[in-house]
Automatic annotation (TrEMBL), chains A, B, C, D:
Family listed: Belongs to the class-V pyridoxal-phosphate-dependent aminotransferase family.
Domain Aminotransferase class V, first and last residues per copy: 30-331
Cofactor(s) this protein requires: pyridoxal 5'-phosphate
Name of the protein: Serine-pyruvate aminotransferase
Residues reported in the UniProt entry to bind substrate: 341
Length: 395, 395, 395, 395
């Protein structure tokens, strides 16, 4: 018999009932005025979650990868140069995409577990007197390593270098879960998806474009149709969509942003921090280390946990799935086999998180790691019960 | 923001997705042949779960209480005498119902936490030479105290007394979760509901009537219409229902019995036992005692946990709900304030159960009880991981 | 492949999406404060729909039949006398129930198709100088014949006879669809169910009790437990329920009353009248007659349509189901084979009603009745398009 | 109050309950083996629906437009030449996309309402001795005009010209509703979406690639990442996906293909033909003409209906939505204001189609067109009742 445990993957997240019901709509004519009542509140809600007053929001029926492609193809031309750091699987994939689209990439290598080296960005940008670099790429939260980089520092580096490049930020696994300030940080394109902080199924690429990014589009020569933001812009103005939209998902996004804003973004971020910190206390109690090399880099949406040398971390994930019906994340790329990941974003409670921690303990014990059962749980319990003084966790 | 933790009340239980979807049907004409395709498999599925070859099954749009009333009014007449033990809130309510329907009740008092005193039953029945006692009432699982009584022993007592009374068993919180053998134990009426082992919402009273119980109905003078099994019997034979049925719930029941039988009843019972035993290991690790006075009485569907003198056990329940968004059960009647209850029946996994145990620990610690965080969790983890050698828990 | 046509039975009705979603809740602890947030708004919403300031509302997990039993057993004693008219299957069933509960019934026979003969009631009540009649029963809308009786006239008859009997009204297929004025008409007990005007699945018996009916309960000697309103009253006061409630359905009822009251009861009634009148125009265009013998009796929730002599009206229903996948209602009791019924209550639009009318035409043509295809549809279209000047039908 | 009428737009279609429930899944780890149990049956089901033994199937989280882009970017290089006919809005959009991707398009103009001029294709291909044309584009069903073109004739034209170009077919509004024979017709790329014949929400682009098309991809220089079929191919082989898949929609697609294949494709096509023919009978009874200029071109998924000169056909759509809550399709591009469209594909019954026809009649009468109410309905009824001899419509 199959019963449903929560998932502990770094997205898609567990979904609240109300969002599932908002998505599961009967068919609605997307060319009728009813669609406008979904489209505009969804766009407006995303805008507020991005903390921007002026950016234009675009929603595509695609994934976060499609969102990246939207960013590149709507602003750049073949042969254009971009600056990017490689500190994990998702930043690596973005670099790969740039190359497949004929862009030149200046890659800054970083250890997997480190953040974006803003100082190195500054050097390179300062040296780029001719402003051949058109865009700076930054992965806000490296889902593969559980590392949150400092986007404000990247912006400061660009400003100190007085460099006019655009700043593109992959916020797929940070936006709506951790603080993100599009305007304050001078982000030109923010990219995210429906299946992380918005607690929806995969299926929407969500982007914000600054005025500067919109203007860059006028010159962009990379071919695009499906991902063309100008078609979107024109259609939105007429309460429509350039092709058939994913109406149910957009209705879910409308409600999701209402829920997030009504809880208050600061409360949402605090909730993610509290839940994440409980996981980290457990990891510490187990005597293990995170992949992220220092506390300022710890992600509040996913923890990548290093296992001892000689142990295959991927076994944790397959054993947990097979024996306990619980999904964790494997290590990817360079850290494959070295880490397993606990996703702790989206729709989750302290209480459910404890079940994930408890499962990880059983799994590691089953696999022969010297973990004392209950040790991580106790550390997390101690933290949660002191942090949840009021009814935060319950509501 | 409200996210959904599992409930740990002794019913209604957590519900599997597939059952919720089976219930949530569009309207179907209950006078059409489509209804027969729901009715008969549901009746037949229940029959198998009751482990009876010959009993007639009846399904009413009501609750377990309605099921009890069905048992009484279809077999007895005003002034008839019944024998009943009072060892908890639910047996007490049944006694109360008998009296409200003008029956005379010979009550055997038992301590709350004890099972049905079969020996005392035997004495009384043996003494009842004139067979004035028409029915013997037995609560299989006292939901209030977490006590499972021995129905086979009650039957043996009746047989040894050579007494022809009917045997009515309240299996509301046992059937479909713990072994129940209608034919083997000579049960004349079995009563249960949809919201426990069947993992459905409340709304169906489910009964099995032996041939002897059916025959008793011919003389029964207690008034009844809504709960008349003869109307049901006649209607079922014509693929119909005497009034408007709860079609969706019955469709859920059809699927629920298919799931239970396909898992195998023995596996279902073993799963409940394993999950329950983990809870009991935790209780033991906490240094607390169950309300049930001896291991042979321990219920596999609900544990009533005694808290220290001077402590109000009800605070556990209200604090857990308010601070952690988790529902436990309070003590009822004589054990109000003395116990809190953890329900562990229906749709539940080892993993989710650990979150309930972990929550109880935090709550008790918050309220000042000398509980070591993680201690109960560790005891349960140790048990679960050794008992779930294969993919039992996961599937 | 099975696709879903709307049903045209006189209940359960087609259900709005939002109500289905409100019912399909995850398990909630019915002993927690969360339940009060469902219970009280549901009770209060029903009170407003009944148009009463003072009556107490009770909601049982049962059907309308259970509602009738609640009315009888909470106010009467064995041997009490009641006055009732028999003008259809449902009034006949109520009479039958009275007798099975040991009540004496003074039956006023009426032709099936007529309303309650208020003048005859007046004669009998006037003649009952000793006030041996304790309750007057009235079926507001005879679902079997499509006849709406005049409850105000029944009240006037009682008043003119200066008779103190209680007035019980079966409003199962009228309340929430046609005007019902509990206080103004002096109704002592109003009985209805969830599956008609409230547009929910079957599973709730819904009652209003006047102060006088509540007082009568103090003397009522008919046995009852499941249907005891005093247990309900006590539990409601403590934000609880005497046994496990059907929480999801009650949540649906809460939302249903909000929808009805927000649309405005007068608009709800007008909508039902408009849709019903379209069906009647179609019947007229077909050259057929309703079972109801005069326009003042025409029900706005169901039309029973007489077919020519020698034709088995039940064939319409089975043929429609088999060939077209559409459910109509058969004739019951005395009018079995003589009428078929089109239910037009609850969640329905002009547009969907036309599909039912069109189907009936095809069916009758298939079965050899001299019906001109499109004739009834045209009559209904003509009516609907003129009555739906604004966006009434759409919304 | 808002109740749900069926939609009569040419997609997204009305959705069967079971598909909505299959989509509405709790979160599943798409990197676990559970995903393979969805992915492979969905791919295999699509393959059978496309009637191909050898093509590779790809499913993208996108729309039909994304499907077109997939076809172009995976096979062609900038400057490549393609041949395309413009006979409606969707063929025009495809031409536009080609140009935006730097392809040269040889456009064959056709009147909107005509099919693809295969003879003209043959002339052009025959003249293209140097085989500079790399691909021939064909819109199987022009959704804007309700015209189904003859793809076999296009193939014959190519064969007679002995031209090696690839054949790309837009089957968005034909596949799974009208006969489509990928292998027999020598189609190299078939493009469709989830929201038409598959009866799902929008959100999936679905493609079949012949071996020849796969090989063409090795040389294709158009940039692509999100839509790269080689990434898909590699991931599928490892039971995975190159990025986060739309798991719920794919689960719906798996079930949808099972439903279609279990009904039998020929039965599915016959059902669409029957429903469409009923609509055409109605149009004829109204004295109106279809946009499609001859019966061999009539689409079985959508009918574009010409209104009299001087009448704005778009008013039909807005009036129907506002007054009756029913969605029809407007005319697009060159036929804007000249036609309105009735979509009759996907999940629909004869009975529901009659409600659409009846609504169109009321709307046209409201707007002053000389339509006799019931005339179109009668024509369709007459057809349906004779074509639905058995229980075809019901099931």
């Amino acid at each position: 018999m199959s019963f449903q445990n929560p998932v502990f993957i770094p997205g898609p997240t567990n979904m609240p009932e109300v969002l599932r019901k908002a998505i599961d709509m009967p068919t609605l004519d997307h060319r009728s005025p009813l669609f406008a009542e979904i489209l505009h509140p969804a766009l407006e809600g995303v805008r507020k979650v991005l903390k921007t007053e002026t950016a234009k929001v675009f929603i595509f029926p695609a994934s976060g990868t499609g969102g990246w492609e939207t960013a590149l193809t709507n602003t750049l031309s073949p042969g254009d140069k971009v600056l990017a750091a490689r500190n994990g699987m998702f930043s690596q994939r973005w670099i790969d995409m740039c190359r497949r689209h004929g862009l030149e990439v200046e890659v800054v290598e970083a250890r997997w577990g480190e953040g974006i080296p803003a100082a190195r960005y500054e050097e390179i940008l300062t040296a780029d007197k001719g402003h051949s670099i058109k865009a700076v790429l930054a992965t806000h939260n490296e889902t593969a390593t559980g590392v949150r980089s400092d986007i404000a520092a990247v912006r400061r580096a660009m400003d100190r270098a007085k460099h006019p490049a655009l700043l593109f930020v992959d916020g797929v696994s940070s936006i709506a879960s951790m603080d993100f300030r599009m305007d304050e940080w001078g982000v030109d394109i923010a990219v995210t998806g429906s299946q992380k902080g918005f607690m929806l199924p995969a299926g929407l690429a969500i982007l914000g474009f600054s005025g500067k990014a919109m203007r860059a589009g006028e010159m962009a020569a990379l071919p695009r149709t499906f991902f063309d933001i100008r078609d979107m812009e024109k259609s939105y103005a007429a309460n429509g969509y350039p092709y058939t939209p994913a109406v149910g998902l957009m209705n879910g996004l409308k409600l999701s942003t209402q829920m997030l804003l009504s809880e208050g973004l600061d409360n949402v971020f605090a909730r993610h921090h509290r839940i994440a910190e409980g996981v980290r206390r457990a990891v510490d109690a187990w005597g293990l280390k995170l992949c992220a090399i220092s506390p300022d880099l710890f992600s509040d949406t996913v923890s990548a946990i290093r296992t001892p040398d000689g142990f295959n971390a991927t076994d944790v994930v397959s054993h947990a799935a097979k024996k306990y019906g619980v999904a964790f994340g494997t290590g990817l790329g360079e850290v494959a086999g070295k880490v397993f990941r606990i996703g702790h974003l989206g729709s989750l409670t302290d209480v459910l998180t404890l079940s994930g921690i408890a499962t990880a303990e059983m799994v590691m014990a089953d696999l022969g790691l010297p973990i004392r059962l209950g040790s991580g749980v106790a550390a997390a319990q101690d933290y949660y019960r002191n942090e949840s003084k009021s009814k935060k966790a319950a509501a």
